[in-house]
Amino acid sequence: MKQIAILANHNSISSDVFALLDYFEYCNVLWALQQQTVTPLFHCYPVSPDGRALKLKPGVELAVQPHPWQQADALILPPAYAYRRAELAALAAQSAAYYSGLHQAAERGSLIAASCTGTYILAGSGLLDHRNATSSWFFKEIFQSLHPNVHLQLNKLLVQDGNLLTAGATTSYINLCLALTEQLAGEQFARQMAKIMLTDPNRTSQVPYMDLSIGLQHNDSLIVQIQTYLSQHLAQPFVLDQLAEQFHLTKRTLLRRFKTALNDTPLNYLQRLRVEQAKRLLETTNQPIEQIVLQVGYEDVSSFRKLFLNYTELTPSQYRQKFMLGDTFNCCPTERLVAET
């Protein structure tokens, strides 16, 4: 029986902790049915930094038992509630009690995994230094500033470097679980679990899911005005000199302040806005791609297709096929149809 330890802390997201426990219990159910055995495939258990019951939000208490978790076959660091730089930086201290044991487990060759903001905890241990990893795409700049020695590959949904596995934002934990299952129980069993979880095991990229309009928070009110202006004039030709003159700045000052506030150039920022608007139109309308291209400020469909592919790793047609909503959004269309009959 394989041992899997969930190294939670009191700030861990409760749904993620329970989702991990449930996933490996699903594995045990499938294993029991296939093998006709009462011996579980996995023993998955939570631990806490201080050995006390986990007091999770919102008011959920989860008992923990003493386990030699440093000897587990796999250790998982679940995400925690943290959305600002100070909160993300504090995650390492909240789980510092685990770090000595994590290094021991790493030396033993145990699989060590983290997803979403849990990757900040793993990075805080130093184990990710000079290693490849992924994390939540929407905290890119914060991760890079806090952990500059980590080779971040945010385009990837899942990254394995040796015995360290990291996964991207939110539901990528399912792919992380499938990767652990494959290594601990074999590829065929992992693929069966993927079907049970209704998850594509070949999902490899976060890029199609990135919202390019989400940027750094900053306090430069003039740059905020320029951002608003650009978002309201997507289709207009971009001329840097004219933009600087309109806001009474030199071109050099505009570029410097834009870089300081958003770590980007005005043109790159505008391109991101244009691609994001094109994504919304592809998701919500039946407009021809040629018409959408004109609405976001381009005339050459071929050039825009290359730009779109660069930002999303999908062509506009592929993106529409993957993400387009129906006439009305309904999470359970089959139930609706049954109810109407």
Automatic annotation (TrEMBL):
Alphabetical keyword list: DNA-binding, Transcription, Transcription regulation
Gene3D superfamilies, alphabetized: 3.40.50.880, Homeodomain-like (1.10.10.60)
Single GO MF annotation: sequence-specific DNA binding
Pfam families assigned: DJ-1_PfpI (PF01965), HTH_18 (PF12833)
SUPFAM superfamilies: Class I glutamine amidotransferase-like, Homeodomain-like
UniProt-listed PROSITE patterns: HTH_ARAC_FAMILY_2
Organism domain of life: Bacteria
Residue stretches making up the HTH araC/xylS-type domain: 224-322
Protein name in UniProt: Transcriptional regulator GlxA family, contains an amidase domain and an AraC-type DNA-binding HTH domain
